[in-house]
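for the writeup, i need someone to sanity check this before i put it in the appendix. the sequnce is what the collaborator sent (i think, or maybe the updated version? ugh). structure was predicted straight from it, no edits. if anything looks off just tell me and ill rerun, i have time this weekend
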Amino acid sequence: MADTPVLVTPTRLRDFIVDALAAMKMPRPAAEITADLMVTGSPRVPRAPGPGATLAADAGAHRQLREIARPR
């Protein structure tokens, strides 16, 4: 018998990811940005090759994440 798929709203998925990342000691602001990118990012858009390559659409969020993660 096939398993019944589990459907969740984007908001609940984002909240779950934030809580999971925070439980792994990621700072909450960084966890929120990461969760936003994971939930709203398009899996159909191919990523540029190479380490550190990002999509232009994600550049602003990556700058925010780097700012939060920067050692003080």
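The radius of gyration is 15 Å. The CA atoms of residues 10 and 40 lie 8 Å apart.
thx in advance!!
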